Amino acid sequence: MSIYSILNFWGKMENNHYDFIDSLRGIAILGVIMVHAVQFGRFNAPVLVFIAKLAGEGQNGVQLFYLVSAFTLFLSMENRINKEFNPIKNFFIRRFFRIAPMYYIAIAAFLVTFGFGPRYWLGDAQNITILNILSNMIFLHGFNPYWINSLVLGGWSIAVEMTFYCILPFLFSKIRTINHAIICFEISIVIRPILYMILIRFNPIGSDYLWGHYLGFYFPNQLPVFCLGIIMYFIVIKKQNLYDIKGETLFLLGLFCVFEVTIGKDFFAPHHIVVTLAFLLFAISISIYKNILAINPLFSYFGKISFSMYLVHYQVLIALTRVNFIDYAKNGTINFILRYIITVILTSIISTISYKIIELPFQNLGKRLINKMENKALLKRETNSV
């Protein structure tokens, strides 16, 4: 981007009330790439412990994606629910054309890269099966510990996201205030540990380690994160606050906090939920205070192409490893920083192309299909009213 285009882009951002959303997505994908850049090649930062800690926390970029997703989907549903003839059907069409095309290409790319043979996330399963592939194509792979992450690296998060899409119309119909949203959050943080305590004792697969990872990935463990995104919607968009929450709801939340602090074992709020609470405060703050360090053209641009970047960056790191261009310096910290920068640059270039030739055309196809259905519904209504 030229200096002129950056300044022009910044000018457009200043007029966009929701410009912070793309920046949050950009921060999220930069975090995800950071943690995976550590996992490839050499990295040793005994002196700069902060860098090692920061890189490891990049994995929580997925939770930031979920937070933003719940927020934007509630906002989108609110804007369309009374303006379209078939808002629920249209919602699923938009989500399919937003996610499926790039994900299907990722499925093909990972099959070409790794083949159908055994791999870590398959556990003791021998190979990628047709059912595994089909489950990924219809986004049900999140319900099988062997399938949730074995075909597409990072595919577990897509499965969780699509599961949330399935229940979002129901949640939107029931959660109409911040009080409802907090009750939903409270229910989710109670269900999560109960399910965990039950399921961890009834391991249906051979590997305790893999089963533990699955229970970290699967939807009930991530549901509280989405609930926090819904709370964010009522704070930022609906301008609701503490006084709009019923006393008994706050009292119950307070009891959970006291219990959590007392037992000190991450019972109600494990690390990924605590980090998401921090993300929630950060997101609310930058929705009010437009700080250029958090909201800027670079982060916003990465946010726009973040879905492609999420699926592409794995392949970039794999390719760099295979051509032996993954390590560049003897110093582990410098080596990691260079790898990270190179990966982000290459990923953003490829993702810009995929965004323009795959994501946008299919999103527009979905829009045309919806417009056709809406026009047909309008014509039918007008005909019946004559």
The ordered H/E elements are: HHHHHHHHHHHHHHH
Q: Low-confidence spans: pLDDT under 50, at least 5 residues?
A: 1-15
Q: Determine the N-to-C terminus distance.
A: 54 Å
Evaluate the radius of gyration.
Answer: 22 Å
What is the strand content?
A: under 5%
The number of helical runs is: 15
Number of strands: 0
Oligomer: single chain
Domain count, please report it. Answer: 1
Shape summary: globular
Mean pLDDT: 91
Q: How would a textbook summarize the main sheet?
A: none
Structural class by secondary-structure content = mainly alpha
Helix content: over 70%
For this entry, give a set of tags.
386 residues, single chain, mainly alpha, 15 helices, disordered N terminus
Structural overview:
The chain is an all-alpha fold and 386 residues long. The chain has one domain. Helices cover 73% and strands 0% of the residues. It contains 15 helices and no strands. It has helices spanning 3-14, 19-39, 49-57, 61-80, 87-114, 130-137, 155-174, 178-199, 208-217, 219-236, 247-263, 271-288, 297-304, 306-322, 332-385. Helix 5 runs antiparallel to helix 7 (155-174). The protein is globular. It starts with a helix and ends with a helix.
Q: What is the secondary structure topology, with strand pairs?
A:
Layout: H1 3-14, H2 19-39, H3 49-57, H4 61-80, H5 87-114, H6 130-137, H7 155-174, H8 178-199, H9 208-217, H10 219-236, H11 247-263, H12 271-288, H13 297-304, H14 306-322, H15 332-385
Helix pairs in contact: 2-3, 2-4, 2-13, 2-14, 2-15, 4-7, 4-10, 5-7, 5-14, 5-15, 7-10, 8-10, 8-11, 10-12, 14-15
